[in-house]
Write a structure and sequence with these properties.
The structure holds two protein chains of two kinds. Chain A is mainly α. In chain A, 45% of the residues lie in helices and 8% in strands. In chain A, β1 and β2 form a beta hairpin. In chain A, α1 packs across α2. Chain B has two domains: 225 residues, Peroxisomal Thiolase, Chain A, domain 1; 143 residues, Peroxisomal Thiolase, Chain A, domain 1 (3-Layer(aba) Sandwich), CATH 3.40.47. Helices cover 28% and strands 22% of the residues of chain B. Chain B has twelve helices and 13 strands. In chain B, the strands form two sheets. Chain B has a ten-stranded mixed sheet with strand order 5-4-6-8-1-9-13-12-10-11, sandwiched between helices. A three-stranded mixed sheet of chain B has the order 2-3-7. In chain B, α9 crosses α10. The radius of gyration of chain B is 20 Å and the shape is globular. The chains are: A mainly alpha, B alpha/beta. The interface between A and B is medium-sized, with 13 and 19 residues.
Chain lengths: 106, 373
């Protein structure tokens, strides 16, 4: 299954209706570049955990890394690749296809 | 500054279904499809209702007809007890058909849930949550007036929604014998109000999303006017029991007095009662209404759509506005006596103002005065 396509479908479900969606084009993108706030990101990862059979306790281990800005300040950063690497490592099942995955979340 | 109710969407049903595996088995008015997949923990029931209230028409109003000034949002969420499997007193609640545990727990916090809906509606100048139990959505009419008249808001969205068909609410009402459970039904009890034989209600799932606008916003956006909000007030009564009501209607009287200040009571011809049909509410609400009014038609919706708790006050008001538009004041169902005031038959709406009443546990009484368009 194309992970970018899946991401875009899940973002549409996680984001409140009527809010502009920024579509993902690459797994290297940070969640914040997709206009996902902390609650959207939480919902996105919970949806993924549900689709891939990852226990909630395990999901708590998914945390952003810290990146240093040019001015020396630090901020949390989470890319789609980080999320999907975590999913691939801990998944216990896999949705058959995109349509099936989305259907179960609506 | 005049205040208008310009748009609303409602969700309610007159159909009933039996929930037989509840601790207190009972009929409810609900939308079973909004409970599908709740066992997965991925779906929160109130959100399913809200998704249906935020219609394309509402979104179009938000996006295309931007209010000239400040926009606020109030979630009238009733008791703020959402998404619960049930109180630990009853083990059955952990496994029955209504038991679920929502995985995105933060959205069970009504303030967070409300803020998320507010962002959908671009209401970013004021976001608040009200927990005045069953009076909640009518109680906030007072807040709407404050925001628009005293703080120059141009638009305020009010979302009335509560997780009304859940174990906690069914247990609470059932254990208090406040509503009609299946054993009462089998003995012949039928929901009604202000009646000497029938009385009470079933619980109901429902919601309302209403848009209130200043006259400035109505002019700027060319918004349709459904009613003018003329007055609103909320009061308590001298009562040491927060679950009880005084038979003399002191709370209702104070609310009516406040909401109708400056108006001739003779102008008020239509009354939407709180109308739970319990013995004490029959006495209390009747005493207050008859104290102020003589020539009126009063009705109640709780027997038609169930008691939608926090959503009920404004939801029922909007349903009555729809019925007035259709030239009818519906009867209070299951009345066993002829009554042309607490009406036992459908009547043509008299010309005049419309008063809405609500009461909530915790000693809250609300009234709002409208002029239907």
């Amino acid at each position: 299954m194309d992970k970018v396509e899946l991401t875009n479908e899940l973002i549409r479900i996680a984001k409140p209706a009527g809010i502009n969606i920024v579509e993902a084009t690459s797994l290297d993108q940070e969640t914040r570049s997709l206009n996902l706030d902390s609650l959207d990101t939480l919902m996105f990862t919970i949806y993924l955990a549900d689709l891939y059979g990852i226990p909630e306790e395990k999901l708590k281990e998914l945390s952003p890394m810290r990146v240093t800005e040019p001015d020396g300040s630090q901020r949390p950063s989470m890319t789609l690749k980080m999320i999907f690497d975590f999913v691939d490592k801990h998944k216990t099942k896999e949705p058959e296809n995109l349509a099936e995955a989305v259907k179960n979340l609506k | 500054m005049r205040i208008y109710l310009t748009k609303y969407e409602t969700m309610s049903t007159e159909e009933t279904h039996v929930i037989s595996d509840a601790v207190f088995p009972q009929r409810v008015h609900w939308f079973p499809e909004t409970y599908e997949k709740t066992k997965t923990g991925m779906f929160q029931v109130p959100k399913r209702v809200v998704d249906r209230l935020i219609t394309p028409s509402i979104i179009e109003h938000v996006c295309k007809n931007k209010a000239p000034g400040k926009v606020g949002f109030i979630l009238a969420g009733g008791s703020q007890v959402w998404g619960t499997g049930g109180v630990p007193l009853y083990d059955k609640c952990l496994t029955n058909s209504l038991a679920y545990s929502y995985k995105v727990e933060v959205l069970n916090v009504t303030n967070i849930f409300g803020a998320r809906v507010a962002s959908q509606l671009s209401a970013n100048d004021y976001v608040a949550t009200d927990a005045s139990t069953c009076a909640s959505s009518l109680k906030v009419m007072m807040d709407v007036r404050h925001l628009i008249r005293d703080y120059d808001f141009d638009r305020v969205y009010v979302l009335g929604i509560e997780d009304s068909i859940c174990n906690t609410v069914l247990n609470f009402f059932g254990s208090a014998k406040a509503n009609i459970c299946l054993d009462d039904y089998e003995k012949g009890a039928r929901p009604s109000a202000f009646d000497y034989s029938n009385g009470g209600f079933y619980l109901g799932q429902g919601g309302v999303l209403a848009v209130f606008e200043s006259e400035r916003s109505v002019a700027a956006c060319d918004s349709p006017v459904r009613a003018e909000l003329l007055g609103a007030y909320t009061a308590a009564e001298d009562n040491t029991n927060p679950l009880g009501q005084r038979a003399d209607g002191m709370g209702y009287k104070r609310a009516i007095e406040g909401a109708t200040k400056g108006f001739d009571h003779g102008e008020i011809k239509i009354i939407k009662t709180h109308g739970t049909g319990t013995s004490i509410n029959n006495l209390s609400e009747r005493a207050a209404i008859e104290h102020y009014f003589d020539d009126f038609v009063a009705t109640s919706y709780k027997q038609r759509i169930g008691h939608t708790v926090g959503a009920s006050g404004l939801l029922e008001t909007c349903l009555l506005l729809n019925d007035i538009k259709n030239d009818v004041i519906p009867e209070i169902i299951n009345r066993t006596e002829y009554d042309n005031k607490f009406t036992s038959f459908p009547q043509k709406p008299p010309k005049g103002l419309m008063l809405s009443l609500a009461a909530g546990m915790g000693n809250t009484y609300s009234a709002a005065l409208f002029s239907p368009a």
